[in-house]
């Protein structure tokens, strides 16, 4: 890999809450823009490019992201873009924009009020619109079909899944933005009833309202900052959309993204965007995450899953590990689509 | 998306106002050379897959071969029976799902296919679901060429249903999408709506640029919340307008009529509203207008408390007075 040219220099997030804020997200974004830019030592007028991830299906109205631009203060006119995906993919767009020399600084943000509708029903509409979405298969049931495949294949166990939940919730106790946290007992969790057999409540991320913002800088602008996490590689890949077309226990797109991003090598910490416990186990295998790597010190999406910013927040949390000096090399992962269909990997380094 | 209903219901205490927001839209999709025959087959109680270059039969069919990228034209009929390759159980079905009683979701590999189809299984009880179980299609009684022509699957190893051709090829499918939300306003918007319920128009001033926004909002030029409350008059000036001549679904007035941008006295951003009380071709930029309120007994936390604006007869405002607000 060549010398990194782009770094994360600021990150802020809103607390993950079961219900908070307006459907537009504007009032939630104002304070986190302020905090992320303050950490980066930038004025909003110093930002060359703004890029967001959100979805009209969460807000229930068309072009909802335009409303959120109010939070920026878009005067004088700004350069702005948007993806209808997790903001981790907006991060990718901003990263490429800086690499291409079209911007030196960028703010990437994601937001959404997942609680405004019935999230697991709304997410049925991300499926194939001819043969799947008209049946309204909810996102928890789709994940359960994947978990069943992994259980039947002997790749995961319900106990291993519960252990992921227990570790995540314990780690989240140190994360002031987490929605679910605390000490739990594996056997007690396994005694709970199923919400979508074989998934129990602890296997599923909560429905979270929230937002996150991350500041990028390139070249000399990055070198000026004392706190920075250099991006040594980013890549994203996608698997076929048909749920019955692929082996749901493998995540080839995550494997390919990890290889393309240069994930291989010593890693101190990785933040995996796994909204379901079995998905963390599948991702660890697909990405080849070693035993010594610390997984999700933030508690991960299982403890707070703000739609359209949870993936970006994984990159932000990994970057904070590097910026704080706790890690020399870290990775952030984001997923989008049903059953880990799309995956993005970002590798961050101290120097 | 079409907005069906929004009405803001007031509360006595401070929490932001929220209201149901129900939207619906019929998605009409053309089907093409692969999904067209597939949907036509379902109407005729026949399941068609297609074969890719590697010899695998895909159900649902693929439009393009993922390995060669060539169109997949080799259609293959498969059996209406199959094997469950994965499953889960739903105790409380959601609106729109295939069954309104507890049921299983399953990935089902139909006999003759190499890939699995997602659908519902009417198994009656969770205990009857298992990987490897044999299921058969239960056809819908009314079939139109849609994935819902398969009502669901049911336990069973064989099927006596016979296919029957029933008309022209299906080329279009329509899927109604209905979604329900709770729309939540900001605290500032809530104050504005509550003031409306008292017959007042409330603005807020940006602490940076000093402009007054009606309704209040985060200042889009400065990115900061507006703070200082400013009551604005229900009189104002037409900045620009359009004459509506086109009829449309849900229209409440007979065309032609005028929708205008009205700069209320004391505000820096215009609001849209109707101008009635004079012929449409007499409305002009700079015209002075006043709000016509409905009966106070009917006021709610809604902009509809103002029925329309009417001309006041005052002299027109000079262009310079509103040129910054167009």
Biggest sheet character of chain A: 10 strands, mixed
Q: In one word, what is the shape of chain A?
A: globular
Structural class of chain B: mainly beta
- The helicity of chain B comes to under 10%
Order of helices and strands of chain A: EHEHHEHEHHHHEEEHEHEHEHEE
Helix-strand string of chain B: EEHEEEEEEEEEHEEEEEEEE
Radius of gyration of chain A: 19 Å
Q: Let me know the number of strands of chain A.
A: 12
Chain-averaged pLDDT of chain A? 96
Globular, elongated, flat, extended or rod-shaped: what is the shape of chain B? elongated
Oligomer: heterodimer
> How many H/I helices of chain B?
2
Percentage beta strand of chain B:
35-45%
Protein name (chain A): Lipid-transfer protein
InterPro entries (chain A): Thiolase, Thiolase-like
Organism (chain A): Actinoplanes palleronii
């Amino acid at each position: 890999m060549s010398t990194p040219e782009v770094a994360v220099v600021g990150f802020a997030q809103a607390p993950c809450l079961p219900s908070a804020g307006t459907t537009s997200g504007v009032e939630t974004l104002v304070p986190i823009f302020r905090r992320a830019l303050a950490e980066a030592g930038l004025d909003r007028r110093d930002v060359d490019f703004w890029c967001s991830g959100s979805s009209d299906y969460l807000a229930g109205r068309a072009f909802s992201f335009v409303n959120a631009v109010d939070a920026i203060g878009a005067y004088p006119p700004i350069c702005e873009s948007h993806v209808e995906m997790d903001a981790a993919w907006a991060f990718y767009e901003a990263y490429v924009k800086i690499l291409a020399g079209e911007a030196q600084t960028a703010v990437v943000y994601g937001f959404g009020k997942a609680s405004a509708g019935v999230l697991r029903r709304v997410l049925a509409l991300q499926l194939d619109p001819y043969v799947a979405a008209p049946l309204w298969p909810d996102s928890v049931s789709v994940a359960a079909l994947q978990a069943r495949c992994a259980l039947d294949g002997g790749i995961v166990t319900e106990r291993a899944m519960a252990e992921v939940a227990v570790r995540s919730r314990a780690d989240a106790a140190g994360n002031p933005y987490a929605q679910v946290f605390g000490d739990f007992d594996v056997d007690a969790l396994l005694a709970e009833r199923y919400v979508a057999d074989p998934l129990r409540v602890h296997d599923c991320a909560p429905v979270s309202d929230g937002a996150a913002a991350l500041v990028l800088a390139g070249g000399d602008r990055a070198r000026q900052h004392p706190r920075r996490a250099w991006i040594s590689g980013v890549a994203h890949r996608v698997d076929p959309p048909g749920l019955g077309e692929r082996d749901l226990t493998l995540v080839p797109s995550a494997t390919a993204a990890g290889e393309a991003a240069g994930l291989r090598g010593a890693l101190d910490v990785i933040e995996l965007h796994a909204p379901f416990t079995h998905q963390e186990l599948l991702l660890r295998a697909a990405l080849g995450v070693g035993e010594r790597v610390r997984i999700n010190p933030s508690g991960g999406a299982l403890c707070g899953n703000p739609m359209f910013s949870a993936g970006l927040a994984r990159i932000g949390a990994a970057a904070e590990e590097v910026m704080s000096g706790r890690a020399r090399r870290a990775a952030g992962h984001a997923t989008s689509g049903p059953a880990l269909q799309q995956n993005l990997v970002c590798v961050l380094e101290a120097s | 998306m079409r907005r069906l209903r929004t009405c803001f219901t007031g509360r006595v205490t401070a929490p932001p106002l929220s209201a149901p927001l129900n939207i619906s839209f019929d998605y009409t999709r053309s089907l093409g050379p692969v999904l067209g025959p597939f949907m036509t087959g379902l109407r005729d109680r026949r399941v068609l897959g297609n074969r890719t270059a590697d010899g695998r039969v895909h159900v649902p069919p693929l439009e393009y071969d993922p390995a060669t990228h060539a169109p997949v034209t080799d259609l293959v009929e498969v059996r209406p029976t199959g094997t469950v390759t994965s499953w889960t159980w739903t105790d409380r079905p959601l609106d729109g799902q295939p069954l309104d009683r507890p049921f299983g979701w399953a990935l089902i590999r139909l006999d003759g296919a190499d890939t699995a189809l997602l659908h519902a299984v009417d198994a009656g009880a969770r205990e009857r679901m298992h990987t490897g179980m044999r299921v058969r299609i239960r056809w819908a009684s009314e079939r139109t060429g849609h994935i819902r022509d398969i009502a669901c699957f049911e336990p069973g190893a064989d099927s006596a249903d016979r296919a029957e051709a029933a008309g022209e090829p299906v080329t279009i499918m329509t899927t109604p999408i209905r979604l329900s939300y709770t729309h939540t306003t900001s605290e500032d918007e809530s104050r504005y709506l509550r003031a409306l319920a008292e017959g007042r128009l409330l603005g807020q001033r940006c602490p940076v640029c000093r402009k007054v926004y009606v309704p209040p909002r985060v200042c889009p030029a400065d990115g900061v919340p507006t703070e200082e409350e400013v009551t604005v008059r229900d009189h104002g000036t037409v900045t620009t307008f359009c004459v509506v001549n086109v009829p449309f679904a849900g229209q409440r007035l007979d065309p032609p009529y005028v929708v205008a941008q009205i700069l209320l006295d004391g505000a820096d951003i215009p609001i849209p509203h109707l101008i009635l009380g004079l012929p449409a071709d007499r409305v002009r930029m700079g015209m002075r207008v006043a709000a016509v309120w409905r009966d106070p007994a009917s006021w709610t936390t809604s902009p509809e408390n103002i029925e329309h604006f009417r001309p006041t007869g005052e002299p027109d405002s000079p262009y310079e007075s509103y040129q910054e607000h167009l």
